[in-house]
């Protein structure tokens, strides 16, 4: 059976118009096919837009309780770049190795999963601190930062304590690509967006709705920012920052073992269902 | 150097002992495909055991189960007497695997990949670097290229580095999953020569999965023919050929394979591809 497409002569402009529709329809098909990816981007974009909106509210309210707002914002940016990098490196542990094709080699080696994740975290912390110091140096050339009272040591102590809980958070998100090779990595971005939104990185959490302020209290990033801002802007010492440090210590003790335990459960699930190798 | 001091394996145990191993994968709700269907076999210490089968026969699943990457649904899997599900880390210390794709960080050099691989098995730089030099010279790798990114090396070279990486950890059991598939004839010969050398000089037990008849016949002490998740024949290459001889004529291994399975390797692979296509079509329609 031979199928032929009868093609009546069409003017050039109509053929072009049909092609325009073809391109638009193709992208609609792709959006449908990658619905979850688009959904995650939507959530991420909403999170970013809300963050900018809350920055505006904070500016109107004279954020930083009289502190210099530019310095307040830049401290938030620097700390977020450090903490999000730890989070990203850990959360990409599985998807990156899957992409390289080394995941099976790593997972069949006798190195324990705790060793694997802690080794990855160690690099992330050291690299993140070096990177943040470089950023601070360059940024200070552009802005007149009010850091004459800064207690750098106290800020560093808070940052390091916070890193432990962030490492635990990162381990939990790292398990997502094991549970779902197709959508797992995207889901980790939602975690990042949520932390960014509720933790008071660019504004004090007092500008957030009440329910978001409750969420902020379980985010280690919130306590880290509060402590580091107090140390950098007001020169507070470690003892004066105790109200921010003790929740971080508790989270630092709970989150890493919890993260490793959850990751192990994810690994077992992936090994039972044959998802370790699969890339999509 | 692996932690042979902490080996808890018995000298009398087989390298691999599989008893009625079953693995099924869920495809859709209430629909499963059987990758391993009650597979039983023993690989003796020091033996080179070949699994000969077409693509999709379950060879790679079998290797993944033995190497602790897939948890079986049923049966018993033991490596040197250790249960791979109960004692995965003990088992991992004594095995290494080379698969059809050389799994490396492609932007890193051979040296960087090798020292990283060795560290996962507790081997320090100080211990690994002289070993790397010796092993690479042994396999005929031009040491001047040791700092070049892996992606600059040919597939044959990458596969040799994969074998070198496995050797660095002194495994008692090597799992080779189609290590020569896709290589040019010369690289294929080089890798086969290396496998023989590893067996002769390093006293490793070797499980070699392949769909290359000549390779299986040349390298293996015994061969198991695997089709659709079942081992349907298992013996020495000579005995397999004798089993299927007709009119006093000893058939080739390929003829023996056809007699055992009723089809040639290519026919089985084509049928498997067709089956997968039909399933995809069916899934698309429904």
What report would you give on this structure?
The complex is a heterodimer of chains A (280) and B (286). Chain A has 280 residues and is mostly helical. Chain A is 75% helix and 0% strand. Chain A has helices spanning 12-33, 35-60, 69-91, 93-100, 103-107, 113-142, 152-174, 176-179, 184-198, 210-216, 220-234, 242-273. In chain A, α1 crosses α2. The radius of gyration of chain A is 24 Å and the shape is globular. The model of chain A has no long low-confidence stretch (mean pLDDT 86). In chain B, α3 (110-119) packs across α4 (125-138) and α4 (125-138) packs across α5. Chain B has helices spanning 59-66, 88-94, 110-119, 125-138, 155-168, 185-202, 213-219, 237-243, 253-261, 265-285, and strands at 16-28, 31-43, 48-52, 74-79, 82-83, 95-98, 173-177, 205-210, 222-227, 230-235. Chain B has 286 residues and is α/β, with parallel strands linked by helices. The N and C termini of chain B lie far apart (54 Å). The A-B interface holds A 100-112, 268, 271-274, 276-277 and B 25-26, 61, 64, 67-71, 89, 92-93, 95, 97, 99, 101, 103-106, 117, 120-122.
Draw up the topology in text:
The complex is a heterodimer of chains A (280) and B (286).
Chain A: H1 12-33, H2 35-60, H3 69-91, H4 93-100, H5 103-107, H6 113-142, H7 152-174, H8 176-179, H9 184-198, H10 210-216, H11 220-234, H12 242-273
Helix pairs in contact in A: 1-2, 2-9, 3-6, 3-7, 3-9, 3-11, 6-7, 7-11, 7-12, 11-12
Chain B: E1 16-28, E2 31-43, E3 48-52, H1 59-66, E4 74-79, E5 82-83, H2 88-94, E6 95-98, H3 110-119, H4 125-138, H5 155-168, E7 173-177, H6 185-202, E8 205-210, H7 213-219, E9 222-227, E10 230-235, H8 237-243, H9 253-261, H10 265-285
Parallel strand pairs in B: 3-8, 3-9, 6-7, 7-8
Antiparallel strand pairs in B: 1-2, 1-4, 4-5, 9-10
